[in-house]
Design a protein that fits this description.
Blueprint lengths: L4 E10 L2 E11 L4 E5 L6 H8 L7 E6 L2 E2 L5 H7 L1 E3 L12 H9 L7 H6 L2 H20 L16 H13 L5 E5 L7 H16 L4 E5 L3 H7 L2 E6 L2 E6 L1 H6 L1 H7 L16
Parallel strand pairs: 3-8, 3-9, 6-7, 7-8
Antiparallel strand pairs: 1-2, 1-4, 4-5, 9-10
Helix pairs in contact: 3-5, 3-6, 5-6
This protein binds adenosine-5'-triphosphate (ATP) and magnesium ion.
């Protein structure tokens, strides 16, 4: 099957610092890929290149047969790539439902005139959007009772799930999750594993997940990629990558070297 995503020899430099260094990999549709690596390895910068926040200094990114590097973030999203952020980025004063509707916005067809006069087609679209947003709240296990809560009043774990629901609202083919379990307790992290598996299995969405929790990575990933200092060190099964000498070396002095979960406060 043709690759959904091809990252072709991508380098991103910030002045003299090479944050992503000649990274080259392909992702097949339907896969859950885990991306691991110590702090500062270049994982988020790689995501930022894929989603159009940054343009690669060298190399190109091809999604679904079309080049996406150089496009703006909303253009990349419209092609079918959605993401969540390492630091939750919700609209705090807006309700949970409104946050999801914002994620859907790029898909709604109405123009400014129609938004003002709200002809029947627009009203119908809005009702459909609200129904879909409620379904997404159900899907991530938040439930409808939180629909009218301002996002900032939701418990932290719920905010993480709401971010995923918002990303799903744009009907992506590829979902990038940047540390989805960051700040969650053990039970919430287990639930997160279920959501990620559901997203892949039930919705057919391809997932790339940056994660420090090796239990979560090992459980849900079909393939794992390890980075350090901008470079990909190893790719393979979670077990293969974890025992790869270059990966062990990169993690020396960190808890992951001892096979433990790297517990990190939400940064
Ligand atoms: N906009 C920027 N300008 C300058 N340097 C940057 C920028 N963004 C990232 N960097 C640097 O690039 C390197 C990689 O950072 P990045 O955030 O991608 O790491 P990461 O693997 O996501 O780490 P963490 O696990 O801590 O989230 C770091 O040295 C970081 O300081
Ligand atoms: Mg990061």
């Amino acid at each position: 099957m043709a690759d959904l995503l091809a990252v072709n020899n991508v380098t991103k430099a910030f002045g003299g610092l090479i944050a992503v260094n000649a990274v080259d990999f392909h992702i097949a549709p339907g896969m859950i890929a885990g991306l691991i690596g110590p702090n500062g390895a270049g994982k988020t910068t790689l995501f930022n290149n894929i989603t159009g926040l940054y343009t690669p200094t060298k190399g190109e990114i091809v999604f679904d047969g079309q080049r996406v590097s150089g496009l703006k973030p909303h253009e990349v999203q419209a092609r079918g790539i959605a993401r969540t952020f390492q630091n939750i980025r919700l609209f705090g004063q807006m309700t949970a439902l409104e946050n999801i509707l914002v994620g859907m916005h790029s898909r709604l067809k109405g123009n400014i005139f129609e938004a003002f006069f709200r002809p029947p087609r627009v009203r119908h679209e809005e009702a459909e959007a609200a129904a879909k947003a409620l379904d997404l709240l159900d899907f991530v296990g938040l439930g409808r009772k939180f629909a009218d809560w301002p996002a900032r009043n939701l418990p932290y774990g719920f905010q993480r799930r709401l971010e995923i629901a918002r990303a799903l609202a744009s009907d992506p083919k590829l979902l990038l999750l940047d540390e989805p379990s960051s700040g969650l307790n053990v039970e919430e992290t287990e639930d997160m594993a279920f959501w990620i598996e559901d997203i892949s299995r039930d919705l057919g969405i391809t997932v790339i997940m940056v994660e420090h929790d090796m239990t979560l990575v090992s459980r849900v990933s079909d393939r794992v990629m390890a980075m350090n200092q901008g470079r990909v060190l190893a790719m393979g099964s979670a077990a293969e990558v974890q025992r790869h000498p270059a990966v062990v070396e990169a993690y020396i002095g960190t808890p992951a070297a001892a096979g433990e979960t790297v517990e990190r406060a939400a940064s």
